């Protein structure tokens, strides 16, 4: 049943086309919309122009609690539409090595020199929640595990702040890792805590997607400090802010964990 198809164009952008259902198309456009300013109002007022004009006409966008509440409801609805549209077997576009963006842009909620310094000898990955084997992982064990299953991808990273870039990440598919630790894959969420106090969470279908990677290398080298050493999650089906760098803890849960930007109004599903 081909109700909708996802296709990549030359530029590597992907789009959903679903005959006869403008709402789903609009929902997709709504979440892939890039915003230039990482603020709640900028993000929400842009989505408003696409999704909620009729709903909110006559309301002022400034400091109006009922508008904010309506927009929050739209964002939750938007999460549900995106989750329904998400297909575990539809792959994000991949690229050739010659298309890699050099230098790859840096982004975080601070400037580059403030990126955390993680001591590889001291590092431990902590596991908690609905996981059978919660033993922490040292970096050498993690590296050996990843190298034995080497997965690699050249994909596009899309940041809501208005830029995108193609990069090459290597590691192990997150599905393999979740299997190894005995994660309950019927649970709803996987959450991440980072060495710089960033945090985010993703839905289980995305966690199990074949392109979702626990990445330890960038362009064939150890992941550089600024880009997430010692380890990041690379998810080409999601926007940049859903790709946690410097992961220090992973947990599996049925309780909504939110995220650093998500708790400030960014859409939680954050599909790209
Ligand atoms: N730990 C951590 N992860 C993070 C962020 C952050 O500030 N801290 N920023 C996110 C955002 S908004 C983007 S666009 C990407 C940037 O990744 P890059 O520096 O590899 O381009 O990291 C994401 N993951
Ligand atoms: Mo971002």
From TrEMBL:
<feature type="domain" description="Oxidoreductase molybdopterin-binding">
    <location>
        <begin position="115"/>
        <end position="261"/>
    </location>
</feature>
<dbReference type="Pfam" id="PF00174">
    <property type="entry name" value="Oxidored_molyb"/>
</dbReference>
<protein>
    <submittedName>
        <fullName>Molybdopterin-binding protein</fullName>
    </submittedName>
</protein>
<dbReference type="InterPro" id="IPR036374">
    <property type="entry name" value="OxRdtase_Mopterin-bd_sf"/>
</dbReference>
<dbReference type="InterPro" id="IPR000572">
    <property type="entry name" value="OxRdtase_Mopterin-bd_dom"/>
</dbReference>
């Amino acid at each position: 049943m081909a109700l909708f198809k996802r296709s990549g164009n030359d530029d590597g952008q992907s789009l959903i086309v679903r005959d006869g259902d403008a709402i789903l198309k609009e929902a997709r456009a709504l979440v892939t919309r890039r915003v230039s300013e990482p603020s709640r109002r900028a993000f929400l007022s842009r989505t408003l122009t696409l999704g909620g004009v009729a709903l909110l006409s006559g309301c002022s966008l400034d400091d109006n609690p009922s508008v904010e509440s309506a927009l929050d409801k739209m964002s939750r609805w938007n999460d549900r539409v995106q989750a329904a549209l998400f297909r575990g077997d539809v792959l994000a576009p991949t690229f050739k090595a010659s298309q890699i963006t050099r230098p790859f842009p840096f982004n975080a909620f601070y400037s580059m020199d403030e990126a955390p310094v993680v001591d590889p000898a001291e590092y431990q990955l902590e596991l908690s929640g609905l996981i059978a084997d919660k033993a922490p992982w040292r970096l050498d064990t993690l590296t050996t595990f990843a190298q034995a299953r080497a997965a690699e991808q050249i994909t596009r990273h899309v940041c809501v702040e208005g830029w995108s870039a193609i990069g090459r990440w290597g590691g192990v598919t997150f599905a393999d890792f979740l299997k190894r630790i005995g994660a309950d894959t019927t649970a709803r969420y996987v959450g991440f805590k980072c060495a710089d106090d960033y945090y985010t969470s993703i839905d289980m279908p995305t966690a199990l997607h074949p392109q979702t990677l626990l990445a330890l290398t960038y362009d064939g080298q150890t992941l550089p400090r600024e880009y997430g050493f010692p380890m990041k999650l690379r998810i080409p089906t999601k926007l940049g802010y859903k790709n946690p760098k410097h992961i220090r803890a992973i947990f599996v849960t049925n309780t909504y964990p939110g995220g650093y930007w998500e708790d400030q109004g960014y859409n939680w599903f954050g599909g790209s």
